[in-house]
Amino acid sequence: MPHTQLNLNEAADYLHLSPDKVEALIRSENFSIRYVRKKPMFSKRELHDWMSKKLLGIVDDSVDKFHENVSTTGDESSEPENLFLSQFLEPSVICPELSAKTKNSALRGLVDIAIQSNLVTDETELLELIMEREALCSTGLANGVAMPHSRIHANYLILDSFLAIAHVPGGIPFGSLDGKLTDLFFMPCASNDRIHLHMIARIALLLNKTDLADKLRQCVSAEEMIDTIRAIESEFVSSGNKNERQ
């Protein structure tokens, strides 16, 4: 449930960090912590918000460290060497030319696209969660990209994970890090929190370390956008494996 409280070990597992590092966060970050019998308890929602903001920042090694640690989850599909993101791509939820003039209209358009998946059970709730997350701080990144996403939601809302993508020709103001217009939107919709965070991490890595955004802007169809993402992720993963072997 969205408001689950986690103890130290559970919080460490959720963030893919060691308990020692989580204890360091207690001292360095502004977490709302309650103590039960002198032991810290963490809000799962607040941890999720902190990690998503950390991953979206892509200004330090957070994303890479997350990928290094996530392979210990035991889920082979989410290991760094697999084409994790490509498995969530469907033409029905990818729009190469979305008409939007404002931030709110772009978010509504993305939710409308997500509904086409037939995997969202409540359109109104999804939009409210997207808006709530955006009110926390903008998910607009640099270089004309944004990654709107919901905060923790009830398990029934997303029946299966997928990635909605839209391109808004010309761009719109979206509160980006560099103050420029935003024209490319990624909206991860995940059936559980672990997949959600890993989707954000993989998108952030590809945006930061490849020319994914520029290549997607040149695409004219959903199918072409899918082929582009799969090719770039495959090249990225292959390159990573080669570096590890050297």
Report what the structure shows.
By secondary structure, the chain is α/β, with parallel strands linked by helices. It has 2 domains: 5-60, Multidrug-efflux Transporter Regulator, Chain: A, Domain 2; 70-245, Mannitol-specific EII, Chain A (3-Layer(aba) Sandwich), CATH 3.40.930.10. It has 9 helices and 7 strands; from the N terminus they run E-H-H-E-E-H-H-E-H-H-E-E-E-H-H-H. The protein has helices at residues 8-15, 19-28, 44-57, 62-70, 103-115, 123-136, 193-209, 212-217, 222-245, and strands at residues 5-6, 33-36, 39-43, 94-95, 145-146, 162-172, 182-189. The strands form 2 sheets. A 4-stranded mixed β-sheet has the order 4-6-7-5, with helices on both faces. Strands 1-3-2 form a 3-stranded antiparallel β-sheet. Helix 1 (8-15) packs across helix 2 and helix 3 runs parallel beside helix 7 (193-209). The radius of gyration is 18 Å and the shape is globular. The protein starts with a strand and ends with a helix. The model is unreliable at 58-63 and 70-78 (pLDDT under 50).
Quick structural summary:
47% of the residues lie in helices and 14% in strands. The chain has nine helices and seven strands; from the N terminus they run E-H-H-E-E-H-H-E-H-H-E-E-E-H-H-H. It has a four-stranded mixed beta sheet with strand order 4-6-7-5, sandwiched between helices.
